[in-house]
Amino acid sequence: MAKQRVMVVGGGLAGLAATMKLAELGVAVDLMSLVPVKRSHSVCAQGGINAVNDQTRQLGDNEWKHLDDTVYGGDFLQHQPLVHEMTLWGPKVIDLMDRLGVRFNRTSEGFIDRRRFGGTLYKRTAFAGATTGQQLLYALDEQVRRWEVDGLVTKYEYWDFLGPILDEQGVCRGCVAQDLMSMEIRSFAADAVIVATGGCGLIYGRSTMSTVCTGSAASRCFQAGAKYANAEFIQVHPTAIPGADKLRLMSESARGEGGRVWVPRKPQDPRDPNQIPEADRYYFLEQRYPTYGNLVPRDIATREIFNVCVHEGLSVETDRQCVYLDLTHIDRRELDRKLGGILEIYEKFQGVDPRDVPMKIFPAVHYSMGGLWVDYERKADGRLVAGSPKNQVTNIPGLYAIGECDYQYHGANRLGANSLLSCIFSGLFVAPGVKSWLGTVPGGAAAEQPAKLFSDAHAAQKSRQDAIFKRPTSHDNPYDLHFNLGNVMTKAATVVRYNNNLREALQVVSDLAERANRASVVDRGDWTNQNVVFAKAFEDMLPVAKSILLGALQRDECRGAHFKPDFAPPGIDATEPAEKRRQAEAWCDKFEANNRQWLKTTVATCSPDGDPVLTYEAVDTTLVPPRPRLYGLVGAEAIEEVWKERARKKNQTPPPDSVVASM
Amino acid sequence: MTRNEFIIRRLHSLSGLVPVGAYMTVHLLTNASVLDSPATFQRNVNQIHSLGSVLWVVEWLFIFLPLLFHAVLGVVIIRGGLPNVSSYPLSGNVRYSLQRASGMVAFFFIMWHVFHMHGWFHFDGYLKSVAEPLGGAQFKPYNAASSAAQALRSGAVQVLYAIGVLSCVFHLANGIWTMGITWGVWVSPAAQRRANYASIVFGVAMSIVGLGALNGMSRVDVEKARQIEDQIYDSLKGSKTPEELERDQHKRDLHRTADAEHPTAEESPTADLVLPDTVPRR
Amino acid sequence: MTASHQSPADAPRTFDVRVLRQDGPGGASYWERHRVPYEHDMNVISVLQRIAAQSRSVEGDEVAPVAWECCCLEEVCGSCTMLVNGKVRQACTALVDRLLVDEPEGIELRPMGKFPVVRDLVVERQRMFRALEKVRAWIDVDGYYDAGPGPRQSPEDQEVAYPLSQCMSCGCCLEACPQYTKVELTRDPGESDADFQARQDQTYDSAFVGAHAISQAVLFNSHPTGTYNAGKRLDALTQEGGIQICGNAQNCVAVCPKEIPLTTSIAKAGRQTTWHQLKKWFDQ
Predict the structure, then answer these.
(1) Phi/psi of residue A194, nearest 5 degrees
(2) Contacts of C among chains (3+ CB pairs under 8 A)
(3) Mind listing the pLDDT tens digit for each residue in C158-187?
(4) Does C246 lie at the interface with B, CB-CB under 8 angstroms?
(5) In the sheet where A185-189 sits, what is the strand order?
(6) Is the pLDDT of residue B3 over 50?
(7) Which of C178, C267, C271 sits opposite B83 (nearest CB)?
(8) What homologous superfamily is domain A5-237+368-449 in, according to CATH?
(9) Which domains does chain C have, with CATH numbers?
(10) Euclidean distance between the first and final Cα of chain B, in Å?
(11) Once rounded to an integer, what is the mean pLDDT over residues A234-243?
């Protein structure tokens, strides 16, 4: 049999981790990326990476609690064995990254320092200044470079993944891609293709994501038959810096290090923020969530900020919405040491020193919890079968998805500093499974498949591009259409969602899809033609955009980042104890009923015309039973009480002590 | 060359300080002794020339060859760079360009200076028929101050010397600073800053010494100096052999007028360069 | 998700952008002028986005969108390096308001001059990554199986190393370096990918590695495990095109967008190579 090769598409944390691990296992890897892998979007991750550690352990933490925090934060929409496995690997992943030379911040005794992040009460987050993602990515990039020198890895940088190649049995045998410089379209034979292409923030126009995060690669798999799950779960990060081209992230670590969110009690108080006395400040997160304070999960922080600006009219400024994120009470030197990187970003783009003046921030689209549907193989004890070819595989045999572009690990809402962990974990974890797949792949090596399979795939992509070039000149261009898409998506499918808006947006996006099919490109050349590359990427955003809207429209409930006021459970407004109790009981009944209907994965398949068809799938919640997600909200104590009683009655087993993972 | 690029560049760096830079420092200090009196200067020169026939070996080995090595490699280095001060007018960058410019100026100045004062080679026939008619070989070691003063009579020559000396001094002082970075002596920005101040102090001091020497030379009373120098020479005569006395002839200024004939004409293979120079370094 | 600022009274309605374009490698370059409507909070990236959407020059001719590279837009990826008003920098942090204060005439954009132009503002920076291979900028770990934590490190060491680890290979230090000169190879007719790659690597290896790679070598030499292979990195730094080419103009540190102490790294590498060379002479 000819030598087998694996194609990894995407050179962020997940893609690089998979590449490096596959190379260690002796598998030859082709690594494809739109940009030099060192420039991947993972560099933008700022705050840190979560894992249980010796210190938190002594305070009562363990991997099970990390699992619990993660699924509670994600509103129980994750398949729990995967999350369990990830949390078990967490400490080992940090150790590995430490050995690879990541310059984590240190305690005075030389151990890795930790900070606290949202959605947990433990200091689990290891960090390297405020550029943790960059540091982790570089360490992996360096290892992959080592393998490149050794000849086991071949990089294809500045290549655009155009789609997987499936044989008649529907097995993935490679992919078609395009060189962004020479515009050459080429078919690559690959015995497995691992898609690690990140999120789809560009569907929203401006987001905290990089310009390469169009989601087009995942969409091309989706259109080729891969299932796309939980598309409607889009994380809106509570704190971002507004900008004309991008909404720049202001890391959760700013709050992790003690940053406080507030607005003046007097609407649009014209005073200098530093002159506003404590009494005139409204620390709304701290007051509503005394236990978690400024570190409530992101979806909650986002909604509270949105609410305080939009519904309570307390935005700091009159002509735009924003709240203060205040670090001025913290020592400058400490700020420089722990948050230097992100404070510089604020300073560079806003021209104001956040060490002296509170920052003005507002939520922005940040992360796609949803993505390509992937499988896994679990054992009875809730662990995964290591090395199973089913782990991380899509519904197309031989096509794998890892990192942000899969739908796992984060459920309905991701906790801060869990994404770096899920990316590296899924990258490392997929490798032995892919190797097993190579040993069992039916019908011989990819390179030995009939030439026609590859030439047909090539021809299809070639004709797609030619068709774009042949369109008559139109007054629509992909850039303007994209601008429209961003506006409609941001309006309809971010923090607060209403069915009539979603329905309208679906119509608008369908119209945009029509127009996109007629939009012409100015550049019809065959050299570094970014115009046509973007045109294709934009067209491929639309099926995913429709999946987001349709998923949101159909899901008549509130879960994590998906919030519909029309379906929000009413709060407890009674003061009389018996009535209060009755309301709480009713609330819990409703909660349970809702879970029976909606604690389901949304699974989209793409019809030939690009419209998604949705089905729903049960979620494995066998490890941590779902419970109401209240985060100690003031006024919700009655619900908490009722729920605890019910749980005791069901006689739930207490969480076992942590299990040791092996890499 | 390419295989040993590192060693060669480091030798280039070193040669700029030792021996070339060190030599220049001594040379300028010696010359400045004329400010004390022509006699002091003459005695210093005599001390150098007391090396006699090994002087030329010393000069070639420790001055000229290192200087030529430094200069030729310096040209190669300059050709490898692409100064961009207009785009990046930063102090370090300006100094980078000045280092190269001053190196080139210093090189041409030194070549001319060695010719002007010493005629490059010390074959009598060559000196008489080539060097001297072209305005070279004007320095006469046993009439040190007076001959130097005559050579520097013209204002234009003085200006050229001033430019040359300042180029040499800048090149050395700035070279010491960059050398300390190249070899890793001063590493941190603070250490580099302190070393920079020290280099500036050194450069200013050497500029004063160099320009002082130039000024002192040009203000020497030629007649008076010549008498003193002749007296000193006469006092040395007793300790010299006849051959030595004969060899000394071209080291003496026996022109009593500008157009007088040179009284001796035999060959003297000894190179006599007391001189010069400075040296480039990156 | 946010409304933009109000425009100040003196803001222009439009402004001009001159772009030095080139259709392909080795082709002739030419200037093209674009007029862009002024908006608040613009940076050079958003200007280029508007130019792409307009696809029309000042003269009204339909023109292909200007090609350029960008990715993160927050100055951590290193993609969008170009010459803005003659100075090398990241386009994303080049804010239009400030550029127009300095140069009310408009904005001038050019590709980097030290790397081969691919098209317009896109250049080929593979040489930088080759330099990272040359200096072995990685930790030679045994493997990726669990082997416990890495070595302990003092917070002081971390604070010295961390800035160096922020290098995003943007190339600003090289563009501004008078000692770093352009290397542009063209493929010979009939030359295979592999042959061309090999020839290119060889050529790159003999040219100056540049400040970024020197600093990375210093970074890894300072790591408790990385120091095991310090000798190999210093060997690389003393090969042809090594640290000896540095001319101490110190532009690198002045233009580095991440303010990495590159000249400190260079001096450290100078010291390390000095000792390394002496040791090689006297210890072996």
Answers:
(1) -110, 115
(2) A, B
(3) 999 999 999 999 999 999 999 999 999 999
(4) yes
(5) A159-166, A172-179, A185-189
(6) yes
(7) C178
(8) FAD/NAD(P)-binding domain (3.50.50.60)
(9) 14-119 (3.10.20.30), 125-283 (1.10.1060.10)
(10) 18
(11) 94
Q: Any residues with CB less than 8 A from the CB of B86 and at least 6 apart, and which?
A: none
* Beta partners for residue A5, in sequence order: A28
Contacts of C196 in chain A (CB under 8 A): none
Is residue C255 less than 8 Å (CB to CB) from chain B? yes
The answer to whether A536 and A468 have CB atoms below 8 angstroms apart is yes
Q: Which residues contact A245 (CB under 8 A, 6 or more apart)?
A: A206, C42, C43, C45, C46, C49, C73, C92
Greater pLDDT, A346 or B263? A346
For residues C140-179, one letter each, b for 16 or more C-beta atoms within 10 angstroms of the residue's C-beta and e for the rest, the string is ebeebebeebbeebeeebbebbbbbbbbbbbbbbbbbbbb
Angstroms from C218 CA to nearest CA on chain B: 12
For the stretch C33-91, pLDDT in tens is 999 999 888 999 999 999 999 999 999 999 999 999 999 999 999 999 999 999 999 99
What would the pLDDT profile of A140-180 be if each residue is shown by its tens digit? Answer: 999 999 999 999 999 999 999 999 999 999 999 999 999 99
Q: Is chain C touching chain B, with at least 3 CB–CB pairs below 8 Å?
A: yes
| Neighbour-count burial of B111, counting CB atoms closer than 10 A to its CB (0-12 exposed, 13-18 middle, 19+ buried) | middle
Are A and B touching by the rule of 3+ CB pairs within 8 Å?
A: no
Res. A663 pLDDT band, cuts 50 70 90: low
Helix (H) or strand (E) holding A261: strand A260-264
What residues have CB less than 8 Å from C176, skipping those under 6 apart?
B84, B87, B88, C88, C251, C252, C254, C255
Report d(CA A101, CA A550) in Å as an integer: 44
B88 CB within 8 Å of a chain C CB: yes
User: What CA–CA distances, in Å, run from B96 to B17, B82, B175, B178, C246?
Assistant: 17, 11, 10, 9, 11
If pLDDT is split at 50, 70 and 90, which confidence band does B125 have? confident
Q: Note the CATH architecture for domain A238-366.
A: Alpha-Beta Complex (3.90)
Q: State both tokens at B234.
A: 């006469």
| Cβ–Cβ gap A107/C155 under 8 Å | yes
Rounded Cα gap, residues A308 and A444, in angstroms: 61
Which residues on A lie below 8 Å from C162 (Cβ)?
A: 103, 105, 128-129
Q: Is residue B121 over pLDDT 60? A: yes
The answer to whether residue A655 scores a pLDDT higher than 70 is no
Q: Does A21 touch chain C (CB under 8 A)?
A: yes
Q: What's the pLDDT at A52?
A: 97
**In whole angstroms, what is the distance from residue C47 CA to residue B9 CA?**
46
CATH number of B5-251: 1.20.1300.10
Range(s) of chain A covered by CATH 3.50.50.60: 5-237+368-449
- What is the CA angle A437-A442-A446, rounded to 5? 80
User: Rounded mean pLDDT of chain C?
Assistant: 94
The complex's ipTM? 0.96
Chain C positions touching A365 (Cβ under 8 A) are 1
The answer to whether A150 faces chain C, any CB pair under 8 Å, is no
Active-site residue, A298 included: yes
Task: Report pLDDT digits (tens) over A184-234.
Answer: 999 999 999 999 999 999 999 999 999 999 999 999 999 999 999 999 999
CB neighbour class for A629 (10 Å; exposed up to 12, middle 13-18, buried from 19): buried
pLDDT digits (tens, 9 = 90+) for A448-497: 999 999 999 999 999 999 999 999 999 899 999 999 999 999 999 999 99
What CA dihedral angle connects A431, A432, A434 and A437, to 10 degrees?
180
Domain-by-domain residue ranges, chain B?
5-251
- Contact check, Cβ <8 Å, B96/C248: yes
Candidates A260, A298, A414, A497; catalytic one: A298
